[in-house]
What does this fold into?
Amino acid sequence: MAETKTKETAAAKEVKAVEPKVEAKTAEPKAKKATKTSKDELMEKYLQMVQFVQNTVGNIENDLKRVSIVLSQLSKFNPEKPESFLEIDKDAKDFF
It folds into this structure.
């Protein structure tokens, strides 16, 4: 009977030794899926950043147009005639 217990114990040790190998093989596809998910996440973040940059450039273009309008209106201002400011103010209301 002592021989049977040692054989069972040895067999159990062999099974335990085989189990980690199987787990290691199953862990590899999970790692690949994690990599694929991270690639998808990176692509999504990249597209978000591209959209952000496009929006930012669009906002800058709008701001530059506003600055251009304001500068052209200020160039019409004559410090010797303060009434010219009122005319510019009326024109500005049409733009904005």
In short: The chain has a mean pLDDT of 75. The CA atoms of residues 1 and 65 lie 95 Å apart. The chain has one domain: 2-95.
